């Protein structure tokens, strides 16, 4: 490199001389450090070669920012001829004003303060128009007296590093957008713009594969003409459908280097011709499991294939797009599950409130009405009990699909749970009022007819009907809660009238609902204030005549209405859930009383307590039984729990597990009302029970009724074959006792022995050795 100075003017002569002197000192120091090289070559030539071969920018400037020395890297990047072509020039001669001004300001500060500026990031545009990032350090140069006479600068091209950082930041931003649930179109657009910023002269596109797996849907293409995107939307994928449709079809990248000649574009090049694209490179977007979900494509106006670096970026893009799509699908799935029934796919209760509110708002705007029908399937339990829950689920799905076909797209079928549904129709019920030419009553009747159509499940034909209660806005309620409550009340009235009926809410039903609410509150107070009490009915061993057990029966002494029959309040307790605390109270009270009899010196007997379905299904039921025994001090062998067939058959496997846990606890188990449920012999043999109780309906007409006599004989024979004892309830006459004894029945209970009586009266009976 030539070290001669350009003519700088008289005012700068001293400064330039000092800078040259400093440069010479640098050369002398290099020669001292490398004496072998200095001995072989002139040290000036050696330094020139060393500086010129450095790929980084290396230069010296005087106090006014004029280049004194510049290496080949700077000369070449600024398209200058000769190594001395920059001498005497400033940044203002080779860079735009604003760029040069920034350099000059920093350099003058260095010269003024004598402090170096290290590792600065500078953005320039070279003579070819390419933007470059430089990592620059600038240090002051001093003369022998220590005065700053210029500066030396070293700059390294970090464009690729900055591109990599930009790419990583872009990726992080995209992942943050995905995590925060940004709309898919926004994520796609940002992803495409990121890739376009790193691949020159291309336009990106993301297309999605429709849920049917056959058609193309637009995802995003921020720099493609919307008219072009519209033409692609809805196209069917195939083996020769451009780049993207073919990539989705094949499930592999499709690189078309020339749209004009490639047969994959034969039927589509007319669409892209107006936009000047000549190449299209498409890669499939896949799910984590490898399923094709769409494509990421780049369009180029120049024919050719993408570079390896470009394809690497496309691979990153398809990966991020896949994450975004799967995240959105998962979000949509969660949203769907939150508002829809998992079994039938129908909207659930949370969605019902929203739809009723929207329907009411629309009715207010138009002066219209809204009809809400509450549906409960009749005899659904029979399917569950006889064929199991799988068959019941299948029936629910079939019925749901049928009901959907009976309503318009603007109406709704909602599953509340179990076998309860709601039909929401934009219109009122009164006959003569029509919705699209059809009365609402006719539409609801069509739903009832669809439900009642026979269904074949597992080779067996079933027919279920439904009880329907109807309420209308604004006549019967002002919101979803009121309408649902009143339609529910009407549905229960339909049940009471024999089922398979439709009832419309009336003022009478409103009064009944109000009375029901009052009774519920009264029952809640009765439990809290001690108005409930127990009576006991003895059970006798027919062989010995000994009273060996009693059944605890709950009663309610109302402060105004007097003694309330269990038949009047137990169904209400079961419906409202109060049966659980009432049942727990009954269990604890019965255990305490039995222990009290024992402590009074009476012979030990067993106390039998009825168990409700809600109690038995509670997860902590066994623990609650154990607690009642522990608190009372009663041994488990003196407690018997009576379970109904229908209770057990709701979930046989769970019931058997719970029964075994109770058996391990030491309590006795009995099946109450045997013969009225639907238990199979296969299930019966699995139950760890000790007794079967023949229902009173099979006893009351004995011995005259031949059918009841046959049933009694069959039950007794079956029980004994399974090594179970048999007790008959509802025994009132001597003839019934004689028949049952002759038939082999083990025990009896009923008015023949005693009506239900209080603990003191029963204590007197227990003192009698044998009846």
TrEMBL record:
PAC domain span: 118-170
Membrane-crossing residue ranges in chain numbering: none
Gene Ontology terms, MF aspect: cyclic-guanylate-specific phosphodiesterase activity
InterPro entries, per database record: Biofilm_reg_signaling, Diguanyl_cyclase/Pdiesterase, EAL_dom, EAL_sf, GAF, GAF-like_dom_sf, GGDEF_dom, Nucleotide_cyclase
UniProt-listed GO biological process terms: cellular response to nitric oxide
Family annotation (NCBIfam families): GGDEF (TIGR00254), sensory_box (TIGR00229)
Name of the protein this chain belongs to: EAL domain-containing protein
Species: Shinella zoogloeoides
């Amino acid at each position: 490199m030539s070290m001669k100075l350009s003519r700088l003017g008289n005012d700068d002569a001293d400064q330039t001389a000092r800078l040259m002197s400093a440069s010479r000192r640098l050369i002398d120091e290099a020669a001292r450090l490398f004496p072998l090289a200095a001995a072989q070559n002139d040290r000036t030539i050696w330094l020139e070669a060393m500086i010129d071969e450095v790929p980084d920018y290396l230069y010296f400037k005087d106090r006014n920012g004029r280049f004194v020395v510049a290496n080949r890297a700077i000369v070449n990047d600024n398209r200058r001829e000769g190594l001395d072509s920059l001498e005497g020039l400033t940044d203002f001669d080779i860079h735009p004003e604003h760029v040069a001004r920034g350099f000059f300001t920093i350099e003058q500060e260095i010269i003024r303060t004598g402090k170096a500026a290290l590792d600065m990031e500078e953005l320039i545009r070279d003579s070819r128009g390419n933007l470059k990032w430089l990592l620059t350090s600038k240090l002051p140069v001093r003369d022998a007296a220590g005065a700053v006479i210029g500066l030396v600068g070293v700059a390294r091209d970090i464009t690729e590093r900055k591109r990599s950082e930009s790419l990583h930041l872009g990726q992080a931003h995209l992942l943050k957008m995905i995590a925060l649930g940004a709309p898919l179109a926004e994520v796609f657009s940002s992803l495409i713009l990121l890739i376009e910023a790193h691949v020159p002269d291309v336009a990106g596109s993301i297309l999605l594969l429709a849920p049917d797996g056959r058609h193309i849907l637009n995802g995003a293409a921020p720099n493609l003409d919307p008219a072009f995107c519209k033409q692609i939307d809805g196209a069917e994928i195939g083996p020769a459908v451009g780049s993207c449709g073919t990539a989705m079809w094949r499930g592999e990248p499709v690189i078309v280097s020339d749209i004009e000649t490639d047969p994959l574009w034969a039927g589509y090049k007319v669409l892209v011709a107006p936009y000047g694209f000549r190449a299209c490179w498409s890669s499939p977007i896949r799910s984590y499991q490898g399923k094709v979900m769409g494509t990421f494509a780049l369009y180029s106006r120049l024919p050719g294939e993408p570079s390896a670096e470009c394809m690497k970026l496309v691979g990153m893009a398809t990966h991020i797009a896949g994450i975004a799509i799967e995240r959105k699908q998962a979000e949509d799935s969660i949203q769907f599950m939150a508002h829809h029934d998992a079994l039938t796919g129908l909207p659930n209760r949370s969605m019902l409130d929203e739809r009723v509110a929207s329907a009411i708002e629309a009715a207010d705007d138009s002066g219209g009405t809204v009809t809400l029908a509450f549906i409960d399937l009749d005899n659904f339990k029979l399917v569950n009990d006889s064929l199991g829950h799988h068959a019941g689920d299948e029936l629910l799905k079939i019925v749901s699909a049928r009901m959907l076909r009976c309503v318009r797209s603007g109406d709704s079928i909602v599953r509340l749970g179990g076998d309860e549904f709601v039909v929401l129709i934009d219109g009122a019920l009164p006959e003569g009022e029509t919705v699209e030419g059809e009365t609402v009553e006719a539409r609801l009747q069509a739903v009832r007819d669809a439900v009642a159509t026979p269904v074949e499940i597992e080779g067996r034909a079933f027919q279920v009907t439904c009880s329907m209660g109807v309420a209308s806005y604004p006549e019967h309620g002002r919101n979803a809660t009121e309408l649902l409550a009143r339609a529910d009340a009407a549905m229960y009235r339909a049940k009471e009238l024999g089922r398979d009926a439709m009832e419309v809410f009336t003022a009478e039903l409103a009064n009944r609902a109000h009375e029901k609410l009052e009774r519920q509150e009264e029952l809640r107070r009765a439990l809290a204030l001690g108005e409930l009490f127990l009576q006991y009915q003895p059970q006798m061993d027919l062989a010995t005549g000994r009273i060996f057990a009693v059944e605890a029966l709950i009663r309610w002494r109302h402060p105004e209405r007097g003694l309330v029959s269990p038949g009047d309040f137990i169904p209400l307790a079961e419906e409202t859930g109060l049966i659980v605390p009432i049942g727990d109270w009954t269990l604890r009270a019965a255990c305490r009383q039995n222990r009290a009899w024992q402590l009074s010196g009476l012979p030990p007997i067993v106390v039998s307590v009825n168990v409700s379905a809600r109690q038995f299904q509670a997860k902590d039921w066994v623990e609650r039984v154990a607690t009642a025994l522990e608190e009372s001090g009663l041994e488990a062998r003196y407690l018997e729990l009576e379970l109904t067939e229908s209770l057990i058959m709701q979930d046989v496997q769970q019931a058997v597990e719970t029964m075994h846990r109770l058996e391990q606890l030491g309590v006795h188990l009995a099946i109450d009302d045997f013969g009225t449920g639907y238990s199979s012999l296969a299930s019966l043999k699995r139950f760890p029970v000790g007794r079967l109780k023949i229902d009173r309906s099979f006893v009351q007409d004995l011995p005259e009724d031949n059918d009841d006599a046959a049933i009694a004989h069959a039950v007794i024979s079956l029980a004994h074959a399974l090594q179970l004892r048999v007790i008959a309830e509802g025994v009132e006459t001597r003839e019934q006792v004689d028949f049952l004894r002759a038939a082999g029945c083990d025990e009896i209970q009923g008015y023949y022995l005693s009506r239900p009586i209080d603990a003191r009266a029963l204590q007197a009976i227990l003192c009698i050795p044998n009846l």
